[in-house]
Amino acid sequence: MYVGNELRKRHKPDNKVTWIIDRNVNTTNVCIANCKFCNFYRIPGHAESYITDIEQYKTKIEETFRLGGEQLLLQGGHHPDLGLKFYTDLFRQLKKLYPALKLHSLGPPEIAHIAKLEGKTHTEVLSALKEAGLDSLPGAGLKF
């Protein structure tokens, strides 16, 4: 905490600190990663598995905007059937509906999963996601 505060003072000597209001929404709870600590995931085909649909996104985004938020953190499981096209189509649709929405979405493990599914490099996946509307990547310190 001390080091972080000292770095902040160096980068922001005016001592102005800001924050952003965002909302976490899970794209899916289907996951094949089998993380030992996760109690959230469901295996493919499980009765409790889901993929969030566009109407659910619209409801959550509009609630977020009403509460002063401007950013959506999309994350979720490593679904074996949700590849790059799913995410690029989703990002484009969300940005078309809500141009001011900031997409702070998917983490490094999800990018690695998509790259593996598609047989693409991480850079190729990130480039396609950025072109589709990704603004930043959580956990990696990447802003586009």
Radius of gyration: 17 Å
Shape: globular
CATH architecture assignment name: 2-Layer Sandwich
Given helix and strand content, the structural type is alpha/beta
Strand content is 5-15%
Question: Count of helices?
Answer: 5
Low-confidence parts, pLDDT < 50 over ≥5 residues? none
**Highest CATH level, the class:** Alpha Beta
State the major sheet. Answer: 3 strands, parallel
What CATH calls the topology is: Transcription Regulator spoIIAA
- In whole angstroms, the N-to-C terminal distance is 27 Å
- Domain module count: 1
Give the overall pLDDT as a whole number. Answer: 92
- Oligomeric description of these chains: single chain
Run of helices and strands: HEHEHEHHEE
Report the count of strand segments: 5
Main β-sheet, spatial strand arrangement: 1-2-3
Considering DSSP H and I runs of 4 or more, what fraction of the residues is helical?
40-55%
Task: Summarize this structure as a short list of keywords or feature phrases.
alpha/beta, single chain, 144 residues
Task: Give the topology.
Blueprint: H1 2-11, E1 22-26, H2 54-66, E2 71-75, H3 84-97, E3 102-103, H4 108-118, H5 122-132, E4 136-137, E5 142-143
